[in-house]
Please model this.
Amino acid sequence: MAPRNQRISHVLLLRRWLLLIGLGMQLAVGAQSDSVNWQIHYPDIKVYKSNEVVLESFIIETDKGTKPVYKADSKTIDERKFRYLSKYNQNLPIDSGKPYYVTMYDADDHLLWEGERFGDCGVGLDIEYYPNGKPKLIGHFKVNDSGSWDELGSRGYCSSMDGIWTYFTENGILSSTESYRDNKKDGTWTYYDQQGKLVRTEEYKENKLLK
Model:
């Protein structure tokens, strides 16, 4: 798990960057810090560090006897890195009965994705990153404020896109925004050119294109 001060610094930088590009996007919410509008929606949520790395370890025969081999995504690594990656290649608490926050890394410890989850369901903030560390998309799934975590799918709380989803180029330029309500297109969608200049807008209501 990333140190708390490191995560808070990351959020501060992200919020400042969003303000600079003028999105006017409201990042929710919470009272996890007196100085930061923390993005996590659920009190006392635990943060888990994981990775999308396929780890392998096996023994080979050499002229000098047996030798252990360690690999991450088919790339040979040393034992120290293997043990480090194994530490964070943990099983997430899918059956814990509580939402949790996941930070997902690659084999080189670059942040790929982070977000709020309950089992396989997105239940809040969702951010993807490019390999260079810049956000690729920032969005929200519908927040479960019902107090119950049973049958989320049938109640419309499992990975239901809700609010503004914002997309960026690899250079950090605003590419497009999408607006959803209860997993349906609803509101203004905007599209930008490679320089970040607005080129087109669309209006939706319950998945229907109005103009």
